[in-house]
Amino acid sequence: MTMMRAPSINNQTLLSDDDFVAQFVARGEVLAKLNRFLRTIPEQGLAEHQVLIGPRGMGKTSLLRRVQILIRAELA
Q1: Residue 31 lies inside a defined structural domain of this protein
Q2: Is residue 8 part of a domain?
Q3: Distance between CA atoms of 21 and 66, rounded to whole angstroms?
Q4: Most buried of the four, 7, 69, 75, 76, by CB within 10 Å?
C-alpha cells in the first residue's frame, strides 16, 4: 500500500495568485530591481541572463512567481 504525503504548508503553488501576492512580503527590493531590468529590454533591444542563486528555502521560486504575476498583470 502506498502512503500519500500531505502537501507542504510552504507549497506556494497551492495558493491563488491573489492570495500569493497578499502574502508576498519579502524580496520587495529584488522584485523592484527585476521589474526595472525587464522594462529596459524593449528599449535596449536585447536581454541578458539573470541568475537567482541562494540556499534552499530562500524564496527563489516564490520571487519568480511574483515576477510572473507582475508581468501578466501589466500585459492584461
Answers
A1: yes
A2: no
A3: 7
A4: 69
